[in-house]
Write a structure and sequence with these properties.
With 262 residues, the protein is of the alpha/beta class. Helix content is 37%, strand content 15%. It is built from ten helices and eleven strands. The longest helix is centred in the N-terminal third of the chain and has 16 residues. The radius of gyration is 20 Å and the shape is globular. Bound molecules: zinc ion (ZN). The site of zinc ion (ZN) has 5 residues, from loops.
């Protein structure tokens, strides 16, 4: 139901702007992706009455494009290999940030030419910030009026820390890199997503600046569990749309349930 709420919000914002909502399959996490999930997404969205241009961009098919972005960042001297396990990171005294543990910098001295198979690749935030000469910000339209949000280097360094751009062992591209690259590649004007990703938006804006990509407008919508979504609290958000469907619910019932009466 959380996904239905998010999808309906994306399509609604696109309609209000006279734009087109794109569907992108963000399937870079090879440990979690199942073909039946993708089929289920198409089925649920179509049942809700949503449509999208074909073909959809499936991130698992664009590994070489993300490799080129990593090569570029590596050429700028902004990356380093990291062999730390979660245990190593905890033992080094790492504290929790907004996207997992804040990396304590154990491998920050390493060079990319010393990378070995199975290493993760991290972005050196300090060096990346050193490339930026102007203040960074983005426009947020998730609240009533559009507002400019400043991107603070302190937030990046103290709340997020050096992010993994390619995962250890699996070699999967991290969400931050793949979404930033694809937003630029697909000329995305507005990124509409849940407030759970808002605190990570500064990282995406930093990557856009370093890579010379434009910064889209962001619209972070309330989650179905948010304070301001109290009337949605009666909904079992773990329940799949397909279950409601099997119990005889109509798409109109779902819209009504999550507050989309349009
Ligand atoms: Zn490390």
């Amino acid at each position: 139901m959380g996904h239905a709420y998010s999808a309906l919000t994306v399509w609604k914002v696109a309609a209000q702007l006279g734009g087109t909502a794109l569907l992108r399959i963000e399937d870079t996490d090879s440990t979690r992706v199942r073909p039946e999930h993708e089929a289920g997404i198409y089925q649920d969205l179509a049942w809700l009455g949503l449509s999208w241009p074909e073909p959809v961009l499936r991130q698992s098919e664009h590994g070489s494009a993300y490799d080129r972005v990593l090569d570029h960042l590596s050429g700028l001297g902004l990356l380093y290999p990291c062999s730390c396990t979660r245990r190593d990171i905890l033992d080094a005294g790492a504290v929790a940030g907004i996207d997992g543990m804040i990396y304590p910098g154990t491998c920050r001295h390493r060079e990319m030419h010393d990378a070995v198979a199975g290493d993760a690749i991290r972005l050196n935030l300090d060096k990346a910030l050193g490339q930026i000469s102007t203040p960074m910000s983005y426009t947020e339209t998730g609240k009533d009026a559009a507002q400019s949000v400043a991107v603070s280097p302190e937030h990046l360094l103290n709340k997020i820390g050096d992010p993994v751009l390619r995962r250890k062992d699996t070699g999967d591209t991290a969400y931050h890199l793949a979404c930033t690259h694809d937003d630029a590649r697909q000329n995305i004007s507005h990124v509409v997503r849940g407030t759970d990703l808002q605190a990570l938006t500064p990282l995406h804006v930093l990557l856009q600046h370093v890579l010379g990509y434009p910064t889209p407008i962001y619209h972070h919508h309330a989650l179905i569990t948010d304070e301001d979504g109290k009337r949605l609290a009666k909904i079992d958000r773990s329940k799949a749309i397909s279950k409601y469907r099997a119990e005889g619910a109509t798409p109109e019932d779902i819209r009504e349930l999550i507050g989309f009466k349009y």
